[in-house]
């Protein structure tokens, strides 16, 4: 009986000490710089978002937020890094929409999409825009469709396999029964460079990245995937005007490893909300064709599961195949 009582006391004291240590640790959080992983190359929508919010987010947290680009495998390399990180709030990530569907298209991921992460907030969306290289002789979606039918195998680019751009282009090809070739990139920045360099012929990509180059005439916009026409491109039709229900945007959200101490989690959520409401940050995002969402964790998690289900259906119908 004494041994059992001593064991119980030891366990109870140990648990209390651990709880006290965690509380003391998290109450003083943060005491060092915070890594903000960007799963794609510089120049894309995720990188744009990270470099728009990091300074203000750091001010609200009381520490420097360091942006770290870690491209590869449609964002899953950075996600694996995040999943391995200690759940102490010092490693966060901005996830692209591909985060919700990589488990359908990439074999042997070193994490579980639904249990390895804490989906904190879907921060922003930006419409996908269908663009073509400057010298492609088409001026509308129908002309692009006819052109592809006359030249089967035309190449389209995306920011990565399973990204919204990939899904949109594959859906367009499926709808019109087109023969096209997918060329995935490590983000929208490299995709844009190759589109302007005429190495790929067309693409769906985030409007935030493509808009300056559409306005300069380096690439041509044919349609946007938003429910309404984009304010910046009022003369460009929506895809849903052409194919009803065609409305898949790019989204970007803040993600942490699962298991954050609750008070650290609340500090991050509070600082994120203050950052997204900051007038300068909000204006800069709007000027870059982003729509601010900043929803709650439950809503973000629900969006991840919804997009996963959409991808599963596309694969089942052979619109997309694992790559």
UniProtKB/TrEMBL annotation:
The keyword Signal applies. It comes from the Bacteria. SUPFAM superfamilies: Periplasmic binding protein-like II (SSF53850). Residues 1-26 form the signal peptide. Keywords: Signal. Pfam families: TctC (PF03401). Belongs to the UPF0065 (bug) family. This is Tripartite tricarboxylate transporter substrate binding protein.
